[in-house]
Amino acid sequence: MYLTELAQSLKRRWYLLLAVTVLAVIATTFIVSRLPATYRANASIVLVPPETTLGDTGNPYLFLGGLEQSVDVLSRDLGSEQVREQMAQQGGSAASYTVTPDYTTSAPIVLVTTEASSAAAADAMLDAVVDQVPVSLARLQTALAVSGSAQITTQLIARSEKPETVMSGRYRAMVMVGGALMVAGVLFVAMVDGLLRRRRLRAEAAADGEDEAPTGEGRLPTFWPRQRGAGPTDPPEPPSTEADAPEPASLDKRRKTGTDG
């Protein structure tokens, strides 16, 4: 029922709805244009098995199996608070990064992703994290007393040439801001329609009351003072302008008095 009345209100005040829509589009465009852009860069690093496991072929890509656990451990270490503070000092605090296993492949690949409000900041953070990957991996293995010839190494296999602009944040902001403005505009149009309708109904009721009021000779003129207790349409008796006539008995007494004198 309420939705039906709302639709009728919008239909009656379509010109207000059109104005509200135009204003919402302009305001949304202005607000979204003021939001800072987000730039993203990424790199892929593969873990290479040590020489002691290569066998006679000497091809490390034939022995990548079993390194998935090492990818998980390395990702956790690079995401630690200590490493993040170090990366903020090297790559800048304006950028953020994530290090995760590449779940799109079964190979032991580490995926590094950086985001920042500028392309230069995203690129600088990516360089810092990529340089930190082999350092963290070597530190983890040294802590376990693994010899250098038996340690896992890394190799960079892909890197973004330049950071790309991420528009998903702006699209989400556009939907949220535009939706909020349109909801507020629709409620405003419904409120204006309700106020105008109530004002019109009051005016019509007042006009009907005047039309039904008594008119003609039975209606009380505005210049007559209304007596207490009198009806609204009963005018008071006008004052008599003639002197009270004497009674006949009084006239006979006067005549007799005059005759006797």
Verbal overview:
The protein is of the alpha+beta class and 261 residues long. The protein folds into 2 domains: 2-33 and 170-194, no CATH class; 37-162, EIF_2_alpha (Alpha-Beta Plaits), CATH 3.30.70. It is built from 7 helices and 5 strands. It has helices spanning 2-12, 14-34, 68-78, 81-91, 119-142, 168-211, 248-260, and strands at 38-48, 95-101, 109-116, 153-159, 164-166. Strands 1, 2, 3, 4 and 5 form a 5-stranded antiparallel β-sheet that branches. The longest helix is centred in the last third of the chain and has 44 residues, at 168-211. The radius of gyration is 48 Å and the shape is rod-shaped. This is Polysaccharide chain length determinant N-terminal domain-containing protein. It comes from Nocardioides soli. The chain crosses the membrane at residues 14-32, 171-192. Keywords: Membrane, Transmembrane, Transmembrane helix.
Features:
261 residues, alpha+beta, Alpha-Beta Plaits, 2 domains, five-stranded antiparallel beta sheet, 7 helices, 5 strands, 14% strand, rod-shaped, Polysaccharide chain length determinant N-terminal domain-containing protein
User: In angstroms, what is the radius of gyration?
Assistant: 48 Å
Count of DSSP-assigned helices: 7
Query: Taking all residues together, what is the mean pLDDT?
Result: 81
Number of domains: 2
Brief summary:
This protein has 261 residues and is α+β, with helices and mostly antiparallel strands. Helices cover 52% and strands 14% of the residues. The protein is rod-shaped and about 110 Å long.
